[in-house]
Amino acid sequence: xxxxxxxxxxxxxxxxxxxxxxxxxxxxxxxxxxxxxxxxxxxxxxxxxxxxxxxxxxxxxxxxxxxxxxxxxxxxxxxxxxxxxxxxxxxxxxxxxxxxxxxxxxxxxxxxxxxxxxxxxxxxxxxxxxxxxxxxxxxxxxxxxxxxxxxxxxxxxxxxxxxxxxxxxxxxxxxxxxxxxxxxxxxxxxxxxx
Length: 194
Prior knowledge:
- Keywords: Coiled coil.
- This protein has 194 residues and is an all-alpha fold.
- It is built from eleven helices and no strands.
- It is 72% helix and 0% strand.
- Helix 9 (136-154) runs parallel beside helix 11 (180-192).
- It starts with a helix and ends with a helix.
């Protein structure tokens, strides 16, 4: 394994690069196929950043697994047909997210966008208001929402992502211990991006 690949893995995991795993893989897969054993190549191909982290450990290269690594790992699992050349989901797919809220916000129809986001998030809030905990799949869905906001920010839709994160924080700040880590990540992203 080349040191340059290990540094790329470290940068992807720590969120210090502007490329996605899919983009890295498209640029390097043929070379890696030649340089690695079949088993090592398959591990990297299918485990993606999880295997990259293992390779960093094996090579005693320090790194910090960040929420950006979770984000890159998640979008790396998407089918190539639904991603653009940079490894992000196609814009037309993103526009339909959250009852069309993302498309509305992209088109500067703020009122409709915020209303649709409100409606989407209200179903989680209603469960909590009824005194129940969110089931795990709904907690994962909220984590996906937070990651989608970051993805939009990475793709130059900064205000759309910020609106999504602000609404998440406003709705769920301090109301449930299981949701609070998602809220804290959203707050940290809002602070980072001003």
